[in-house]
Amino acid sequence: MTGSVADNAAPAGLATEPFALTAAGHQLDFFAGGPGRLERLLRLIDEARTSLHVAFYIFADDASGMAVRDALVAAARRGVSVCLIVDDFGSGTQEAFFAPLCEAGGTFRNFLPRLSRRYLIRNHQKLVVADGQIAMMGGFNVADDYFAPPGDNAWHDLAFTIEGPVVARLDDWFARLEHLASTTRGQFRAIRRAVGAWHRGEDPAQVLIGGPAKGLSSWARMVSTDLVHAARLDLVMAYFSPPRRLRKRIRRIAAKGQTRLLLAGKTDNGATIGAARLLYRSLLRAGAQIWEYQPSRLHMKLIVLDDVVYLGSANFDMRSLYLNLEIVVRIKDAALADRMRDFITEQLEQSQAITPAVHRAQGGWFNRTRWVISWFLVVVLDYTVSRRLNLGL
Predict the structure, then answer these.
(1) How far apart are CA 364 and CA 318, in angstroms?
(2) Bridge partners of 105?
(3) Facing residues of 240 across strands?
(4) How far, in Å, are 55, 60, 74, 93, 100 from residue 106 at the CA level?
(5) What pLDDT is recorded for position 78?
(6) Is the omega angle on the peptide bond into residue 242 within 30 degrees of 0, that is, cis?
(7) Which of the residues 72, 78, 162, 337 has the least number of beta carbons within 10 Å of its own beta carbon?
(8) Which pTM does this prediction carry?
């Protein structure tokens, strides 16, 4: 089934305006602007009547965090069954901040609260399911920077709501995630079993889960397979450091078709930019077109491969492909793919084209040395180490 763009699609050139469409039997509404993203999240919570299932990697103790927490508390007080899961490593917010939710009758859980050799596994998912009928997803967390207007201190991100059959699958995964968050013993084995046993569903709309598994997770397996068969790739990605096998597949698409990559020009972790820049030369030689987003820090995660669109929490790096718990909706729909390519084109108008000449100018011996070190830090070591060092990038 193909979709049709709704009447309120974003006018050309307005890269942060909301837009909506129907695709593969689902209604989708997109929010690229921070204030609109927060308004829609709060309205979703306020309109819930029976249940709210919420999971975030970061849930900050700031103005936005308090607004969302208080909305969840109000929902619990009016009889809504509220469950909130935050990642202990990513969030770092004290449990006392969430005490009002528990006092109102809601449930709060820290994901992986115990430090161990498995601490590198993080719940990077962002998911809100209201009444089992509508879900909100994307790359955003609950913190002021994710809801701010465009600017140097804001994250440029993309959130979306989805209504349709796939929401039941999202709610099913949340139930499994809550069980994982409540497990105190053998948690790593339970995570691997849950990720490995997850069934993504059938085309045209599927729910993919990333994380440690025997073999590849459904997210890593599907995007890897689609890269083999695709003739066109359009990608917007905050963190881009894929393994050699996937880079080879991207170069193959670039050599035979069209490949557009929009990557970060600003971020909170300069080593991730350096790691991505180390890959530019071979990608440009293969025919890929590369841009770096300039107005603010890029946090978006969006992939379009032919008529397939990937939307969710996963970056295109080693951590998101193989380690973090991630959640991604894969939708096969030609009209959706076309609309998301138009959206990407709008972002390119605010980005710097990285031509071979520009890349050569960037890549003196000193910068290339930093890029090599960045790759080692980002791909081999933990992000926490690279954030601390940062290398001035």
Answers:
(1) 26
(2) none
(3) 316
(4) 14, 18, 10, 17, 9
(5) 97
(6) no
(7) 78
(8) 0.92
| Cβ pair 273, 369 in contact under 8 A | no
| Structure tokens that stand for 171 in this block | 């709610």
Q: Which two tokens stand for residue 73?
A: 């508390």
Task: Write out pLDDT tens, residues 38-48.
Answer: 999 999 999 99
Cβ distance 154 to 298 under 8 Å? no
Q: In terms of DSSP H, where are the helices of the chain?
A: 34-47, 63-77, 88-91, 99-103, 144-147, 166-182, 187-197, 218-229, 244-256, 270-277, 280-286, 318-322, 334-348, 356-362, 365-375, 383-389
Give bridge partners of residue 20 from the DSSP assignment: 29
Q: What's the order of all strands across the beta sheet hosting 258-264?
A: 205-210, 326-332, 308-312, 301-305, 232-237, 258-264, 289-293, 351-353
- Cα(240)–Cα(276) distance, integer angstroms: 6
CA–CA gap between residue 118 and residue 235 (Å, rounded)? 31
Task: Find where tokens 């959640």 sit.
Answer: 327
The CA distance from 321 to 386, in Å, is: 19
CA-CA distances (angstroms) from residue 228 to 139, 162, 222, 300, 341?
25, 28, 10, 23, 20
Please state, in angstroms and as integers, the Cα–Cα distance from residue 339 to each residue in 52, 287, 345, 347, following that order.
30, 23, 10, 13
How, if at all, do strands 258-264 and 232-237 pair? parallel
Q: Which of 130-139, 154-163, 310-319, 381-390 has the lowest mean pLDDT?
A: 381-390
- pLDDT tens-digit profile of 298-355? 999 999 999 999 999 999 998 899 889 999 999 999 999 999 999 999 999 999 999 9
| pLDDT higher than 70, residue 147 | yes
Picking from 31, 33, 34, the residue whose alpha carbon sits closest to that of residue 20 is 31
Distance CA 276, CA 375 (A): 8
